[in-house]
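Format notes (please read before filing issues)

Several people have asked whether sequences and structure tokens are stored in separate files. They are not. Every record keeps both together, in the order shown below: the sequence lines, then the token lines. Line labels are part of the format and must not be stripped during preprocessing.
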Amino acid sequence: MTDTLERRSLTREQLLEAYRTMRAIREFEERVHREFATGEIPGFVHLYAGEEASAAGVCLNLDQRDTIASTHRGHGHCIAKGVDAGEMMAEIYGRRTGSCHGKGGSMHIADLSKGMLGANGIVGGGPPLICGTALAAKIKGTGGVSVAFFGDGGSNQGTTLESMNLACVWNLPAIFVAENNGYAESTASSWSVASDNIADRAAGFGMPGVIVDGFDFFAVHEAASEAIARARQGGGPTLLEMKFTRYYGHFEGDQQTYRADEVARARAELDCLTRFAARVTETGELAQADLDAVDAEVAAMIDKAVEEAKAAPLPAEADLLTDVYVRY
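Then the structure lines:
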């Protein structure tokens, strides 16, 4: 399918939603980058800037039946699945009004009401979770699909490989999205991953493996659309590999001595937001004024999220033992 045909398959409202999602992720991450430098945000932060097309392109195909599991770099996935940005910001600031009441922080944002099973500080922790929710969807016949996002480092974890095998054995409606940004922390995937492409590993499990330009929203959306439709129809799992780069270090404070000029090139030539805007304005599907309006809307939303997060109360001593155990 060509880019033109794919663009025609998306309505004006869907295109605006896609742009709004990517812009929200970008502005959220850029703002967290600045706020973290003030010293007011506790713990570690891992930013998703540069990778927006993956989360947006996949999650635009999902609905309330579906679930996702994320990684320590999970803000983008949360936003794309509909988690409230204000609650996310409060969580990052460690406030009681956060999505996990200030107890999870950046790496453990979750919202089960949105089908967001959680960001995860454990590398490779997400794939086993989606096997459970995918099995539940299959047994209940809901038509639901479960998606696990993981990095090139997570692709080498036994949990990930075992989950892909299990998903094939049980023919689960599961999608495995390897977000290959080139590094597992500071270790290049070209050194740590034996195969040239993570997607090539799919053949070992008997599932389709697709390599995707992760800077191109339309390429991501098309590949995810096909894989998700196939899963809903009982066709089983798919492994998608998104190839792109992150704009910031592995974590805030990473000196990035292992990288040269690749980020500057990606921002200048490959940026997913710039490419999206150029395509939709060239075809006349959206006007620059439409995009500018979304930019202003998102900027106001992020300002409000930060303002409210800073003013929100911290967890109290009485909150210490709440939400520790699950009660049925």
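For reference, the curators noted about this record: Residues 1-8 have pLDDT under 50 and may be disordered. Residues 12-36 form the longest helix (25 residues).
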